[in-house]
Amino acid sequence: MSSFPRRQAATRRFTLGAPRRPTVSPDGGRVVFLRSRAGDDPVTCLWLLDVASGEEHLLVDPLTLDVPGEEDLPPEERARRERVREQSGGVVEYALDAAARLAVFVLSGRAFTVELVPGAQPAPLPVDGPVVDPRPDPTGARVAFVRDGTLHVHELSTGTTHVLAGPADDDGPGVTWGLAEFVAAEEMNRYRGYWWSPDGSQLAVARVDDAPVERWWIADPAHPDRAPVETAYPAAGTANADVTLALVDLDGTRVPVDLGEGTEYLAAVAWDVHDLLVTVSTRDQRRVDLRRVDPDSGESTLLVSETDDVWVDLVPGVSAHLGDGVLVRCAELDDTRRLLVGDEAVTPRGLQVRGVADVDGDTVLFTASERPEDVTLWAWSRQGGAARVGPQYGVWAGRRAGGVTVLAGGDLDADGTRTWVRTAEGRTVGVTSHAESPGLQPAVRRVATDAGGPSVAVVLPTGHVPGSRRLPVLLDPYGGPHAQRVLATRGMFLTSQWFADQGFAVVVADGRGTPGRGPAYERAVWGDLAGPVLDDQVAALHAAAEQVGDLDLDRVGIRGWSFGGYLAALAVLRRPDVFHAAVAGAPVTDWRLYDTHYTERYLGHPDQHPDAYARSSITEDPGAQSPARPLMLVHGLADDNVVAAHTLRLSSSLLAAGHPHTVLPLSGVTHMTPQEVVAENLLLLQVAFLRDALG
């Protein structure tokens, strides 16, 4: 049997072969989903589940279609996959008409349609490529798509294609229609740039002009014969892309949309039979407006304006409407993110709403946390109020339509993701998973901390006998906003358990700034992404040592990627009295080099809050503390999210300070590390480095 690192890399962290991205048809009779044929197969297929019979039907197998390889993906699609952290190939995204009878998808830049009935054959869309983000209109009569920054519409009945919206003659080369700009996709979870009207007669289309955005150049020094890739990157304090919205009729007539005064970000667009709603925010994100747009005139009316002295969060899935048109949204009340129907809060204080999955008639399906380590599925209706749907513990998500609910997730008691369908009558239908078993059973022990302290878990070597030996300690955090590591699911602790089995006591902690604990806990990092975050990791380490035992505090290492990499480097540079070695992967070392939307939310504009950037960055005088601790910096040279300049600037500062360190550059690697050999060997190299450094 191959090693755990190799199997984890080959299976994309044991996610291949598991059902994902389900959609329920409006009548509740069918579920469309993606799944590869095996746990080590990266080619994703499109499947159909008949709810009544429980039968699964393969609709699209990419290997049977005449398409070129994945290397022929257009740049826009490669960028989209990087933003959503997509590591598979094949059919990785699809779009449906309103009745869920037609699916449209893209393979290697070619668009296809397929009827959602067993035995249907995919048909190529007879248009020139490469095609990006094809979507059918709600009636299923036509398909829109983007090519070369221009939005096109193809009529299925006649086979004709025409340009609907594209750059004008006096526009510069940075103008696109129908695509999301970088910060929308990377930070706002908005991956698209156009939206069909409910009757298919109009589209709301985003026009993006990235001419104001600074140009960066991502080069691969291992291949000096290749030209650097030009990237429009809006670093903190610099200009964003100019984003506007227009209503476009099928004949190309355009009407500009009023997005309100003082707004900079187009965060979301939702268009249903009741209203066209847009969510916009100011640059400092202290005000988020929900506006209703008149589809004829483009004029808008302010419905709700949320303000906060620090920032207003964007909540996935809202705003939306019940079947009768009543508005569904979220608001922060009593240090709780709560679900609002109309103006009434319908979820209790202390239940932190994470996002809205679907609205089905008068039922709202959403995820929420009673405890930060559990993210469970809930439903609210006028008849039954708010009630949990499915398991009480673990991490769960779902979809709902036609009274049928899909539940998917896992917990600490079983491997992988489990998926099933529950009908309105209470009947359940399982959805097959081909995911491989990791062969590890993480033994996760929770550690209690004081009220308001971090969430902490400890993982010890398999079979460790208490008192038998003192263990070197490895902290394994992410630690930053948006993400958690202490979640009640096995998948979050597989790598930690593997490190533990190499002889470490692994401590995982979510401190201030991480979600699931309420707005005040998340906002505790405003103006300082270093101090509170690092203090909480130290507190977690000491709590673990007191309650678990056998932790050798004279041998403490820390590892992480992205924000976790920043935290790892921060730890050995600012607290060498606590941390004795670190592996920092893709670290953000100078926050002036990270994007506007994320960075300015937490640190403000650098011209207005220079002290916040000085407190939070680690490139300035990194060798001030002593003694110098072993530090390995790892960075993908093709990373366009956290660019390699972060690591290179820190390395230069460390060299100037006489601080020994190791730099591992990864040629051709982005912010993800999907390459099997790279992902495997990174784990092995980290273990070797930490063993050597900690003795």
From TrEMBL:
Coiled coil: none annotated. Residues 495-694 form the Peptidase S9 prolyl oligopeptidase catalytic domain. Pfam families: DPPIV_N, PD40, Peptidase_S9. It comes from the Bacteria. Residues 1-28 are annotated as: Disordered. Residues 128-317 form the Dipeptidylpeptidase IV N-terminal domain. InterPro entries: AB_hydrolase_fold (IPR029058), Peptidase_S9_cat (IPR001375), Peptidase_S9B_N (IPR002469), Serine_Prot_S9B/DPPIV (IPR050278), WD40 (IPR011659). This is Prolyl oligopeptidase family serine peptidase. The lineage of its organism: Bacteria, Bacillati, Actinomycetota, Actinomycetes, Pseudonocardiales.
